[in-house]
Amino acid sequence: MLRIGVVGCGTIGRGICRAIDEGVVKAELIAVYDRNACDAEKLRGQFSRFSPEFMEIAKMVKHIDLLVECASQEAVHDVVPLALTSHCDVLILSVGALADEGLRNRIEELASENSCKVYLPSGAIAGLDGLKSASIGEIHSVTITTRKPPQGLAGSPFVVMNNIDLDSISDATVLFEGPAKDAVKAFPANVNVAATLSVAGIGFERTLVRVIADPSVTRNIHEITVKGAFGEFSSKVENVPSPANPKTSYLAQLSAIATLKKISSPLQVGT
């Protein structure tokens, strides 16, 4: 059975751990880690089937087959190379870190050298299968418009650096429009889906991201338009925010769990 270690005990990390413990994912939960040890210890006491240890990552990678990163873009720089050099597969949730071309190339090289797999879940969007298929031919453009309640963008570097008063926004307001390589740094907790689209499609320079703060919406909305030699398609997902963290869509958590189910299943469905 697949042995899993989870790094990051926030909203998504907790959901993944519960899914493993409840048998939704056919795997063993071996270890958890969070830089806030209290969060990890609190989580450890919530399981019925497994008793995962709190382990430093250097020790964890010696006891697992797959490391699940759901901590931060910064954590990807340290955690993922360490896991790959220890012959562990990796599932990355903080996909925005891969906007760093040097890091992305290093991860691909380490995965190849150590015969490992690196998994990037679809996240809180639909249409990634179509984009992957379209990428075999020519893609002309990829655009994603993310629309969120203003407070769902609170604390983002872009909002903080530009002294944007989110409480004063009374109508739908475009806060950002530009390439994905800039968007993932400006809104690291909000637009990981743009990074996933970039990796699957035409890259971080050419993928266009638009971020809108809209007080009239209560859901996190992602609209994607892809045009290419195949024709064009659009998708729109209106995500219910996680009750524990309005910056995170519930579907993002479900996507990570579904990816783990796919990894551990003999039947592979979809592109």
From TrEMBL:
Domain Aspartate dehydrogenase: residue ranges: 170-257
Pfam families: Asp_DH_C, NAD_binding_3
Record EC number: 1.4.1.21
Domain of life from the UniProt record: Archaea
Active site positions: H222
Enzyme class: oxidoreductase
Domain Aspartate/homoserine dehydrogenase NAD-binding positions: 8-121
Record GO biological process: NAD+ biosynthetic process
HAMAP family: NadX
PANTHER family (alphabetical): ASPARTATE DEHYDROGENASE DOMAIN-CONTAINING PROTEIN, L-ASPARTATE DEHYDROGENASE-RELATED
General function of this protein: Specifically catalyzes the NAD or NADP-dependent dehydrogenation of L-aspartate to iminoaspartate.
Family (UniProt): Belongs to the L-aspartate dehydrogenase family.
Additional record remark: The iminoaspartate product is unstable in aqueous solution and can decompose to oxaloacetate and ammonia.
Protein name: L-aspartate dehydrogenase
Organism: Methanolobus chelungpuianus
Encoding gene per record: nadX
